[in-house]
Amino acid sequence: MKPFKILCLALLVPSILSAQKNPATKLPQLGKAPLKSVVAAMTLEEKVKLIVGMGFNIEGIPPGMLPPVDPADNVAEKVVGAAGRSHAVSRLGIPTLTLSDGPAGVRINPIRHKDSTKTYYATAFPVGTLLASSWDTALVKRVGVAFGREVLEYGIDILLAPGMNIQRNPLGGRNFEYYSEEPIIAGNMAASFVKGIQSNGVGTSIKHFAANNAEFNRMNLNTYVSERALREIYLRGFEIAVKTAQPWTVMSSYNYINSTYTSESKDLLTTILRNEWGFKGYVMTDWFGGKNAVAQVNAGNDQLMPGTTIQTKEVLEGVKSGKISMEQLDKNVTHILNIILKSPTFKGYKYSDKPDLKADARVSRMAATEGMVLLKNNDNTLPLTGTKSIALFGNTSYDLIAGGTGSGDVNKAYVISVDKGFANAGYKVDATLSSTYKAYITDQKAKRPKPKMMFLAPEPIGEMPLSADLLKAQANKSDIGVITIGRLAGEGGDRKEADDFNLTAVEQTMINDVTKAFHDNGKKVVVILNIGGPVETASWRDKVDGILLAWDPGLEGGNAIADVLSGKVNPSGKLTATFPMAYADVPNAKDFPGKELPGQKSTNPLMGNPAEVTYDDGIYVGYRYFNTFDVKPAYEFGYGLSYTKFDYSKLKLSSDNFKGKITASVLITNQGKVAGKEVVQLYLSAPHKNLNKPESELKGFVKTRLLKPGEAQLVSFVLDARSLASFNTATETWVAEKGDYKVKIGASSLDIKKSEKFSLANDLNVLKVHKALAPASEIKELTK
Ligand code: BGC
């Protein structure tokens, strides 16, 4: 070769090599080039990959039951045990996002690849229902801030939480993950939680959008529900959360609403969520939710999770055949890319895998004490001043339920049981009783059948029979008897009335025998309810002296329970769901959770057979029903006791006539001997001219600061036009009807302390919306 040619080659080779090594240099890169040019540079296959997740294997589900995953996606997980991942398009600088459950703490595998020298435990925070029972949005945000830090430090981009469906029926299997039967509570709690989590620069996914109020046949349940009930009850909380907190993502639910899967509903995901509410993030399906990938894409369900090869094929074919327009696909892709741009992974955040679990445990304990509800306290049984020794009964006294099962579960390093909590607080827990219970629990756990799938809640262990001699001895030597009643629930099943909502016969016997033995000795008995949803209390509550509703309080539960029972913390939680006298009193008791359609079978047992449910209770959910139809509950919505007493005075409205806004203020004074916080609630009774109205509805709530004895706080509420309005289906408008409105300030929905009236001179059309999600035929709903 001539020297000149050699020189030319020598000059060329490095540039050829560098172009080969880095072909991306000329391609638009996410975050550097305009988003439009990145989308334009994506091939059809890349766009489809981005909107279909990378798939995953669920532990415990036999192979073949889940749809196949692309072998190319079988690459090592960045965060082992996270629920999902999105596809990367490396040549355009688009990274993989990692998505992880769940509402009570980061749910990832604590041990990776059998190497226990390094662990990845997460904090189990109190469940959603407990957090909501604090009625303290600042507290919920604070929990979110701590929790979101764990999300960030474990390398996760989006937390699949909060769960915020309405607790329509006490038996809902996932009620513990959710906040309330009241959308104003659900919406405000979710918004605060989202703000807290997202303050760390990670995302959330408010779920399950919408009307996912039961676990029964959940992927095949058709929910018939009126537009009004949807707008006022089942969508309202989501609306508040979207408008005030802009979650990065929304997760559509498994169920159908009026015969369309929510993940395939353009009405829900585009018309309402994006166009009416201004949602700016992206929508993902629930895991394997819906059936028709093309319909999902067209509805504006931007991402199909966890993603299957079948979906990839269907979407590709859908675009090629013109069933999905490129414009629609680009919209979905853009929604996802906008979120990727904000993600810690995109920003190259160097996560530590070492969140401050000690600090978060303190937040978890503090939050748990704020949401526990004191249901009963005869003759100041509580706090336990002067008590030294405790006889502790009930399995869950020694084996506390920190949270629920399924995707709401958390892999925590420990759980502080009630006995441990009491011991830490300096009480003497009877050691003989304790070791008898512990041996019994170990033995029974070894004997019980394994759940059909690892995901599902195991069978509960029956309570240990207590002999007369044992009870006599305990009542002699201990100052007080404490009984814990526990219930475990979770994804994949609803609770039952018998032996779950209602106490079991053995539990009733335990309460009878323990109270008899202790009362005969002039000693008292307190019950701790370690539950995720309401249980029957009317048949046994008169027998005991005190009841603390501790909910599922997270990993520090035992310490938090001791904090409240000892009086270190004065309880200030109140109920965000009605505790009925009997299950039959619940308006939808007969139809819940729905019924299977005769002769229709699903080929996949995971789906459940086709089934339906009609929400003929309409807007009369929870206290809206009990208070309108005068059905006496065991403990009403908003109820909760304190170790002190509060006086309500000086209720003042800013005007007698509503002109766009009214402010109500009221003075709350601590009249007792110890410091405490009060949850002050504003209910509104509206005139009913053309529309059926509940007796009253919650329109605002404030939790006071910790008030010292004698100290007072003026709290105020603002009522805007929307607070006065109900949804008029005929005109698709939120309307405030003219007439007299009564503002009721209460310590609960039935314990109204002060009220005042104002009037509205003319009907007010507050907000016109679209006709959307209408049932094919009118639903005959309960009316007053
Ligand atoms: C649950 C979701 C969860 C998802 C991922 C589904 O079964 O319904 O709440 O986020 O799984 O684990």
UniProtKB/TrEMBL annotation:
Residues in the signal sequence: 1-19
SMART domains: Fn3_like
UniProtKB keywords: Hydrolase, Signal
Chain ranges of the Fibronectin type III-like domain: 678-749
Pfam families, per database record: Fn3-like, Glyco_hydro_3, Glyco_hydro_3_C
Gene3D superfamilies with a match to the protein in the record: Glycoside hydrolase family 3 C-terminal domain, Glycoside hydrolase, family 3, N-terminal domain, Immunoglobulins
Any one GO MF annotation of this record: hydrolase activity
PANTHER family (UniProt xref): BETA-GLUCOSIDASE
Family, similarity comment: Belongs to the glycosyl hydrolase 3 family.
The protein, known as: Glycoside hydrolase family 3 C-terminal domain-containing protein
